[in-house]
Amino acid sequence: MKIIMLGAPGAGKGTQAKKIAAKYDIPHISTGDIFRANIKNGTDLGKKAKTYMDQGLLVPDELVVDLVVDRVAQDDCAGGYVLDGFPRTIPQAEALDKALAALGQKVDYAIDVEVPDENIISRMGGRRACVGCGATYHMEYAAPKAEGICDTCGKELILRDDDKPETVGKRLDVYHEQTQPLIDYYASAGILKEVDGTADINDVFQTITEILGA
Ligand code: ADP
Ligand code: ADP
Ligand code: ZN
Hints:
- The protein is of the alpha/beta class and 214 residues long.
- It is built from 9 helices and 8 strands.
- It has a 5-stranded parallel sheet with strand order 2-3-1-4-8, with helices on both faces. It has a 3-stranded antiparallel sheet with strand order 6-5-7.
- Helix 1 packs across helix 9 and helix 2 (31-40) crosses helix 3.
- It binds adenosine-5'-diphosphate (ADP) (2 copies) and zinc ion.
- One adenosine-5'-diphosphate is lined by residues 9-10, 13-14, 31-32, 35, 52-53, 57-59, 64, 85-86, 88, 92, 162, 171.
């Protein structure tokens, strides 16, 4: 099962992608996580990506496409995967389709998690990320057991630089301009599934499992 998660920044793509990956036992591939790991490790890719991410802009297609195409060709992806945060532009979607077609494969579902901009602003303000393992929490809706501490690894939880209000507005503009057109792209391909992302985390997941079956 090859799944793409669509939706605005903060819509809940990552939250749902992790649950899908666990339930169906397939890899969760988050391009945002890959970039953040590269930044943490001080790689060249990380240095290049950071300048864009800090401004709320997309990293150029040429820095992300090969990375994802290589990743989905790895053995652990043979039984499917859930892509979170990719594609984010029409050229990325076209490049993915082309690479998959060459392998005789295609995307099965594009799940659009719909959340209005008004809700996004408050969601992002409450999002906290673990500096150790990258796990995501929300101060109100997905709180850790101990305030400010990761349940999984015990490290500190922080507000991501790009989740500060001044950057969130820019990211929403970028989303509407460059990523939202993918909704029509996957609707035309006949694989778009829209879910209401304003519901509770578990209710959103329930709807998704009904779409995916089992
Ligand atoms: P969110 O989960 O809030 O939508 P991500 O963690 O997916 O954010 O991405 C964080 C940042 O990483 C994006 O704002 C962008 O700068 C960069 N990024 C992630 N994925 C892509 C992509 N497919 N194309 C271009 N930039 C990307
Ligand atoms: P994305 O990957 O789309 O950027 P996340 O999965 O990181 O979004 O979710 C953004 C924030 O909102 C996180 O703090 C997360 O815990 C919280 N969140 C996710 N889904 C819901 C939901 N259905 N209701 C309330 N908060 C949610
Ligand atoms: Zn952690």
